[in-house]
């Protein structure tokens, strides 16, 4: 006769035994009062545990949690806004610095002691002529167009990724 | 709205309907609270951790993958947050969590529990609170939450075999105590 272990009895309680094992167990139990007593005790435990009480969560817990959820969302929204403000400030600063540097560079190229409106016009028209003659080169035109196209595409993708990132942050905070 | 599945509620929340999160709270708060109260053995701690768990779940909803049930995913958060709280309170968590082979003896609590219990059910349920944390949690998840052993193993991060061992060992220990007092005859 196969020994009836606690493991087998537990599996019997959990309906994990196949039909043959159940039949064998039932036969063996008839000749093993000790195992039968064990099974009865396990069934008692099982029945008691099935009646285990579910504690009710404290009153108002749902409202408390939702309040936390909303306040957290507000904090994140503020963080998103602060982050965007920071990004725009940095961009603004970069543009300002570039403008100032550009202005300083141009001012150093013009001799203000001898300059007059005619001289300035002449220098501008000379510069324009140089630029036009330089751009008339087909190779330069092709390369320049390619660069502009790449730059435009780059800007487009940067803006798109920025938009996606912003949406992601906002959906997280909603 | 009551018939919405967890999946539908989550999709709604992701679309921006934050208020729908109340549906998930109402659905899981009592069972999660029961688990935490039995785990932490303190009502105030259980309430505080419960709030924390729901907040964590809300903040992580975007990372929730629908290849698992929400209940399993959420109970995993509850279980881990509960353990962290226990650990921070410097209870004997290391001893509790070390191994499924740990020895525990319910007999040492027998006098206290037996003298204050009016019937077998009360006795057994009080004894559950004296089981080591993981044993008690398997019992609670199995009986209160109606989870399968497979789901419990996912929540607790243990193998299916070890989860089964934990459940059977807990039940067998309780059985020994029931036998000691011949309680089995009461229900026959």
Keywords:
heterodimer; A: 174 residues; mainly alpha; 6 helices; B: 188 residues; elongated
Percent range for β-strand residues of chain B: under 5%
Question: How would you sum up the global shape of chain B?
Answer: elongated
Distance between the termini of chain A: 66 Å
Rg of chain B, Cα atoms, Å:
18 Å
- The count of DSSP E runs of length 2 or more, i.e. the number of strands of chain B, is 0
- In the predicted model, the low-confidence regions of chain B spanning at least 5 consecutive residues are none
- Could you give the order of the helices and strands of chain A? HHHHHH
Mean pLDDT of chain A: 81
Number of helices of chain B: 10
- The level of helicity of chain A is over 70%
Task: Please state the overall shape of chain A, judged from the principal axes of the Cα atoms.
Answer: elongated
How is this fold's topology laid out?
The complex is a heterodimer of chains A (174) and B (188).
Chain A: H1 6-13, H2 19-30, H3 33-50, H4 61-109, H5 117-135, H6 138-173
Helix pairs in contact in A: 1-3, 4-6
Chain B: H1 6-14, H2 21-40, H3 43-59, H4 70-88, H5 93-97, H6 110-116, H7 120-128, H8 133-143, H9 149-156, H10 160-180
């Amino acid at each position: 006769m196969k020994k009836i272990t606690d493991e087998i009895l537990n599996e019997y309680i959990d309906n994990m035994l196949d039909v043959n094992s159940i039949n064998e167990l039932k036969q063996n139990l008839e000749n093993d009062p000790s195992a039968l007593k064990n099974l009865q005790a396990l069934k008692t435990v099982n029945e008691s545990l099935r009646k285990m009480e579910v504690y009710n969560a404290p009153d108002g817990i749902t409202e408390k949690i939702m309040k936390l959820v909303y306040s957290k969302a507000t904090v994140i929204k503020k963080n998103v806004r602060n982050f965007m403000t920071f990004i725009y400030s940095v961009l603004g600063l970069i543009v300002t610095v570039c403008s100032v540097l550009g202005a300083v560079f141009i001012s150093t190229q013009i001799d203000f002691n001898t300059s007059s409106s005619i001289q300035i016009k002449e220098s501008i028209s000379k510069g324009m002529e140089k630029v036009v003659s330089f751009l008339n080169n087909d190779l330069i035109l092709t390369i320049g167009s390619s660069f502009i196209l790449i730059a435009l595409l780059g800007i487009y993708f940067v803006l798109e990724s920025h938009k996606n990132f912003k949406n992601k942050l906002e959906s997280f905070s909603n | 709205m009551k018939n919405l599945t967890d999946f539908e509620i989550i999709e709604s929340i992701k679309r921006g309907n934050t208020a729908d999160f109340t549906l998930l709270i109402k659905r899981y708060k009592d069972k999660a609270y029961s688990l935490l109260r039995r785990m932490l053995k303190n009502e105030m701690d259980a309430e505080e951790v419960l709030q924390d768990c729901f907040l964590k779940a809300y903040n992580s909803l975007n990372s929730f993958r629908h290849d698992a049930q929400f209940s399993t995913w959420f109970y995993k958060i509850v279980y881990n947050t509960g353990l962290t709280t226990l650990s921070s309170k410097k209870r004997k968590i290391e001893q509790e969590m070390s191994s499924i082979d740990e020895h525990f003896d319910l007999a040492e609590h027998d006098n206290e529990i037996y003298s204050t219990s009016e019937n077998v059910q009360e006795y057994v349920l009080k004894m559950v609170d004296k089981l080591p944390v993981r044993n008690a949690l398997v019992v609670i998840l199995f009986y209160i939450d109606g989870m399968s052993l497979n789901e419990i193993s996912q929540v607790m991060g243990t193998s299916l075999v070890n989860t089964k061992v934990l459940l059977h060992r807990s039940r067998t220990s309780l059985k020994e105590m029931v036998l000691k007092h011949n309680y089995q005859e009461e229900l026959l």
